[in-house]
Amino acid sequence: MAAAIVLPLASAGAHPDASGKPLAVTGAVSHVRGISAELEGTVTPGTQTTSYYFQYGATAAFGSQTTPGSLPPGSARVKVGQTVTGLLPGYHYRLIATSAAGSSTGKERIYTVKTLKVAFTLVKPSAPTVYGSPLTITGSLAGAANAHREIVLQESPYPFLDPFATLGTPIFTNAAGGFVFPVASLTASTQFRVSTVDPRPINSPTVTEQVAFKVTLKVRTSAHKGLVRLYGTISPAVPGARVYFQLRKAVRPGGKSESTTRFATQFTTVVKRATKTSSRFSAIVEVAHGGRYRAYVQVKKKGPLVDGASTTVVLAAAPTAKKH
């Protein structure tokens, strides 16, 4: 059973009656994401094991309800929360608690959005992940009871409109509240967050990890120095995409940029062949400027993948190549 956040009865503001019936108090709405949100409230179970759920809908007739949760007997107030989808501004909702001793219906409320402070810190990735590569999400949970807390990693792939879904199995924070979530393979840009496993979860801020096309570049030399064939693959397939062969050049830092190198396009070609999983490109060129080259694929429209580049290869200039 997930851990519950328990407050003493003195601070609850209400007590279960002498019959031992539970007490339900409808709370606010939080963690809003499109039409997904978390309904909150408190339940004082009373003398019996108690189930609780939320009803919600466009009118006071409601029409939808969440899957019931369960709480053990107790006289302390317990904070609870459940995620719902299809929730729109103006919708009605309420919390209901029931046990063998009786039932309690919380006050009906109207959906509002409230931003809550969180105690999580996530390390934001510094560069896009290459298509199909693994990823590690790290961070920490601060505050009281942050050690050995059960948490889950949740994801929402591009275009980031679907509610977050749990990825993998829960883990526990370490003694300092730290955690590491490995992701085996990432194939589309994805938003991630970490959530505690509680009746009323605490969610981390969202981080977005972009995924870049996987580009490989190979070189085949010829009997003529500087005349080479550049070829490689792009995953996933992008038929008709333009490939840029770029030379890394030294530059002086300027403005706000501290970069000392940049890539300048020397040749281009178009992807002509493709399979279901990858595209292939090839070009025969005469190298005018020797140095480190890469193959670069640029995305024209927003999508699940961003621009991708290969690792660099060293090319020697042709002795008779025209200098610029």
In short:
The protein has strands at 5-7, 23-33, 36-44, 50-57, 64-65, 69-71, 77-85, 92-99, 102-105, 109-110, 120-122, 129-130, 133-141, 150-157, 165-172, 178-186, 190-196, 207-209, 211-212, 214-221, 227-235, 242-250, 261-270, 273-274, 279-286, 291-297, 308-309, 313-315. By secondary structure, the protein is mostly beta strands.
In words, what does this structure look like?
The protein is mainly β and 324 residues long. It has no helices and 28 strands. It is elongated and about 100 Å long. The termini are far apart. The relative contact order is 0.13. Residues 1-14 and 113-118 have low confidence and may be disordered.
Task: List strands and helices in order, with pairings.
Elements: E1 5-7, E2 23-33, E3 36-44, E4 50-57, E5 64-65, E6 69-71, E7 77-85, E8 92-99, E9 102-105, E10 109-110, E11 120-122, E12 129-130, E13 133-141, E14 150-157, E15 165-172, E16 178-186, E17 190-196, E18 207-209, E19 211-212, E20 214-221, E21 227-235, E22 242-250, E23 261-270, E24 273-274, E25 279-286, E26 291-297, E27 308-309, E28 313-315
Parallel strand pairs: 12-19
Antiparallel strand pairs: 1-7, 2-3, 3-7, 4-5, 4-6, 4-8, 8-9, 8-10, 11-13, 13-16, 14-15, 14-17, 17-18, 20-21, 21-25, 22-23, 22-26, 24-25, 26-27, 26-28
